[in-house]
Amino acid sequence: xxxxxxxxxxxxxxxxxxxxxxxxVPAWAPNRFxxxxxxxxxxxxxxxxxxDLLLGYAGMPSFGHAAFYxxxxxxxxxxxxxxxxxxxxxxxxxxxxGAFLALVGALALRARGIYxxxxxxxxxxVVWSVLSNNQLxxxxxxxxxxxxxxxxxxxxxxxVNLFRPANFYFLTLTVAAIVYIALAAVVAxxxxxxxxxxxxxxxxxxxLGYPTFRYRLAAFIIAGALAGLAGMLGGSFNFSxxxxxxxxxxxxxxxxxxxxxxxxxxxxxxxxxxxxxLLQLGLSSLPARGLAERWQLLLGLVFIAVVxxxxxxxxxVLRRRAA
Amino acid sequence: MNLSTxxxxxxxxxxxxxxxxxxxxxxxxxxxxxxxxxxxxxxLFDVITGQRRPTSGRVLLDDADVTGFxxxxxxxxxxxxxxxxxxxxxxxxxxxxxAIAIRSRLKVGSRIWPSRVEREVGAEVSSRLEMAGLxxxxxxxxxxLGHGERRIVEIELALARDPRLLLLDEPMAxxxxxxxxxxxxxxxxLPEAVTVILVEHDLDVVFAIAQRVSVLDHxxxxxxxxxxxIRANRRVQEVYLGGVD
Lengths: 323, 245
Hints:
The complex is a heterodimer of chains A (323) and B (245). Chain A has 323 residues and is mainly α. Helix content of chain A is 73%, strand content 1%. Chain A contains 15 helices and 2 strands. In chain A, strands 1-2 form a two-stranded antiparallel sheet. Chain A starts with a helix and ends with a helix. Chain B has helices spanning 41-49, 71-77, 94-106, 117-132, 147-159, 177-188, 203-209, 227-232, 234-239, and strands at 3-12, 15-25, 30-34, 56-61, 64-65, 79-82, 165-169, 195-199, 212-217, 220-225. In chain B, the strands form 2 sheets. Chain B has a 6-stranded mixed sheet with strand order 6-7-8-3-9-10, sandwiched between helices. In chain B, strands 2-1-4-5 form a 4-stranded antiparallel sheet, with helices on one face. In chain B, helix 3 packs across helix 4 (117-132).
């Protein structure tokens, strides 16, 4: 068996084992707390995978991805608070809000590379300042945000109580699986290959007849929509939508997850997101006083170590061992 | 596809890279553009493809003004070019590089679900690799290619668009004798309807492919004629063919 085929087989087995692991979390998790951690990790994984489409595949280093997450969180919260907690409209609202804000943020597509990064960052900070503006508190809740957001209600199964951690966990797992499958199909499609061509050499793509701006816009909107979906779930999970979700640190954590896990693989960023959530939890509950408050510093150190010693991230190590 | 530029001027500040260049190439013609380094040959290509807007003047393709057209729209009209410095998609395989060009021609690069057309694309990739004599390199990442291989893939990428006007910017630079011969054979085998414009320093290649030769010097078109006329042209000998000093 060739090494590549062995890699594919072991990747398939790895994915199957991982799915089994995810499916059984509520069965062996010691208590509700850990089920909630798992939900949080999966929501963050959806967010990180959506960023990977931009960062890993299209080569667009968005540092403002949190804005789209927040858009989904706020839109979902407003909808659930004022209109209805039905799941399907809520999921659509998350997607639409993210996509719509991405259309606004598409101004940043004029720039490339580091300039794109700075523009997306600035855009997200503007969104954050609007959300935390107390003059808009009657609608958006100001710096407190929107609180008391109800959990969604399932269609055809309204009696399934999503306030129970295990039930909500299965909802996030289902959405995460669908997002993963959809993104995997997208990156394997002609459109996905076109994005990779743009990442490698945009000028050459234009010479070959590709209107690259449209493709970058489409990628930005898809990624924004999926980030909005993650945000909507995050808002439901936390019973709230807060301005902090739009802050640059949220974008930074997603970038860390993508790069640490290994960009351009979807699986890597998802795993990276889980690692980041666990690290955040572990580091911020360190017994030594002072250290726990500096969990971001410690996370940064771990990140630097991964970048230095495991180029290509966690997934990159597996890929290289196969190559 | 025929091409003409009407008094095209390109200025970089005080320097004129092209001055009042009116350049006409008939449909199906094989034309070479020669001239010393810095004569404006690549700038001329950039103006034709739309990578650079002229300071003044117009560009016409098939007698239609395309001066305001973007690079990709001109490409879709049937324009393809190769670059002096290879511009392959470095982290993609040779097959993926070609597939991108083929999908562009078939206008299927935006399909978001894996479609049946991909099988067609794969088959064409195979046949093109065969024609170019590169089937063994199918899965090689482009950045791992040798210099000569890279130049050949560069040409194949442009050919995969089935262009009606092909611009080749020093396609033979750095190729070995055998590689050169193979490339010349490949280019001579192009359908007669294809217009080819070639920038090349190797005059043997120029005279093997081109029916007419244009000479640029300091951004000015100084001569235009058959290879025999150009060889005999005194002014050309002075500036280019290393004649009188």
